[in-house]
Amino acid sequence: MSLWDKIQKGLHEVTEDLEKTVANVASQVGAVNVAPSTAAQQRAAEWQVALQQRRLPSFVQERLRATAAGQRPWIQSGPVAALLMERSHGIHPLGMVGGNCWYHFGFSWTQGHYDGWHQAIDRLRLEAVAMGANAVLNVDMRVRHGDGEDMDYALMGTAVRIQDLPPAWEPAVATVSSLEFVRLLEEGVVPVGIAIGAEYDWYQPWGGTMLDQANQAAPFAARYWNMEIPDLSSFQENVRRRALYNLREDGRKLGAGVLAHTQYSQVFRVNNEQGEGFLCRHIAIGTAVSYEPSRAPQHELLPTVSLGGPLRSFRPHRKDLL
Amino acid sequence: MTKEVIAPHAVERLKGLRSQGSHEGIFTSDLSVNEFVMVRKAEFEPLGLVVGSCIYHMGIQYGSWNQNMEMDVLSQAMYQARELAMSRMEQEAIILQADGVVGVRLEVKRMEWDQDILEFMAIGTAIAHRSGVPGFKGVGGKPFTSDLSGQDFWMLLEAGYRPMEMVMGSCVYHVAHQGVLRSMGNIGRNTELEQFTQAMYDARELAMERMQQEAADAQADGITGVQLHEGSHNWKPHVIEFFAVGTAVKAMEDADTRVDALRPQLVLPVND
């Protein structure tokens, strides 16, 4: 049972059968017999309904609204230097917003990544909209691994309001900090979201791969030969191409280009009833940026040579030289 | 930042509006945000990620135990497989009508199920000049290839050079073992192991030669950003690969006027 299933089962127990829950909790904490408070039960129930209905529980909505209205202290993640930039450029931090999705892979790890992240992004947007934000900056992407075939996709960032602009119905989601965000805005580039391209496929060569066939044709000799395995090459290339096509299409939905920071691909050999097969998967994750290609960057650029870090490139560890 | 400072397009986007069905500005790349800005500063636009891959079975070769020698079967394999991956990536760039490919990474991975099968992957971002100015293509009118980052690409153009081709030289070498008598003779003495020194020299020299030859064939003036990798792809301990890779560059016609306009400033950060 995945952790998500456990959580769901737990939530179900809480709402359905109080006595059993109490006994269950008691057995786990040993001698200390603690029943969940009514408030905690209410919260749990409300979370369940909210997640099902793709909205926020009322207490979260209320806290976010109060924070955005200045009745509670604002929250900002990221460096203090960013705060300076935010002040000078009219960016007001509202509060931290997050979204996550603990996902169980029933049939596909690869597709799970696509769905898990998208669900988490949608939930992050939900909180940002509740705060009346224009953008969420400094968005951090994290995963947690479960006990079995499951994983949690988590996002956290700072919702900001930009001076003189009305709240957005679809706030930009940017993985860059506000320092970079400001610089990009001045260049006419807006980081708008996170794009994902994922693809997997099976290859079951009848009579083995080209290498196996060469081995059959020339036993003992073929293993001394240099040769490409063309069928495996093109199989893998096609998976990769389709993943990148999906990445572009995901970007297109946001009306944006994609700067892929993460690329991951794997080929496995699997033995099953049909014989030897290959599984290939490729995942690409990137920052989606919206801009006008015809509009050249306006800002002047001054090349500088820093006497700090970059010139001292030869800095080996001591153990490397001794 | 008041609205006047932000580009109108950016303001629309931040209000949550966007133009639907536009093909403008839809691309993929593995550039970082900074690289993206710098490529655009250089008056180029990213077109798309291009990849080429090759899964390759390396032949088996045994080196003589006590002889320095190039393992030519392995050298050829490393060379041919990389070439195949690179040329497939180039094909994709040609289809996109690119001027060239920047930020090319060449990766080699060993397959889990067979140590003689290696996977080679070349990946980079195809770019084209924003207003279609000609004269940036590489050898024979094909897109140029380069392992330079977006920032380096901008600096290269500012310095009056254009990239021609990513060039490489590879040499897999077997370093001879010492004979027992020889080892016995060295007991208690501080001495150079000339045979080993020679092997390193020879292998490096062969790799450099080959890389330079490629650049000469590409009619380049020089090679920049060269990196020399020494690696062993799960071979016997005495087998080592020297792999030199860099970007062959050629001076542009208006190089001198460009360079005159260049005034790099020295700065000393006080952060640390």
From TrEMBL, chain B:
SUPFAM superfamilies named among the record's database cross-references: YbjQ-like
Coiled-coil boundaries: none
InterPro entries: UPF0145_dom_sf, UPF0145_YbjQ-like
Protein family according to the UniProt entry: Belongs to the UPF0145 family.
Protein name, per record: Heavy metal-binding domain-containing protein
Source organism (scientific name): Igneacidithiobacillus copahuensis
